[in-house]
Amino acid sequence: MNVRVHLDPQTVAAAGSALAGIAQRMADDIAALETTVTGPAAPWGDDESGGMFALAYQSVLGHALQALGSHVQQVGEAAIDLHTQARAIAAVDAEAAAGLTAEPVPVTAPTTSRPGDPS
User: Does residue 57 contact residue 63 with C-beta atoms inside 8 Å?
Assistant: First the structure.
């Protein structure tokens, strides 16, 4: 079976940038959640039943925040992988084009910024 796949480096890089934005929003939301639930405001109340709930809740809070942080890290790594793949696709395309034309073809990197690069 002959299957053709078309991967546009610009589109792949744009997907990486979008995913990096999602990872950043996730990290910001988790930080806000952590501030709220560990802050002095005691969102569950300061009465006896609120105190009992807080004990049960806080016993799993650390694990839950760690799991959420792990998800953010995985999304961020996927964003970086997409940018790396976009560069690799552009390089292979340029090499293949140079082989067909017998002329050197400059590699044009995707114009979308890589996560963590200054804009």
Answer: no
Q: pLDDT tens, 73-89?
A: 999 999 999 999 999 99
8 Å CB contact between 5 and 85: no
Take residue 3 and report the two structure tokens written for it: 């299957």
Long-range contacts of 112-119 (CB under 8 A, 24+ apart): 112/10, 112/13, 112/14, 112/16, 112/17, 112/83, 112/86, 113/17, 114/13, 114/16, 114/17, 114/80, 114/83, 115/16, 115/17, 115/20, 115/23, 115/76, 115/79, 115/80, 115/83, 116/20
Is the full-model pTM beyond 0.90? no
Contacting residues for 87 by C-beta, under 8 A, at least 6 apart: 9, 109, 110
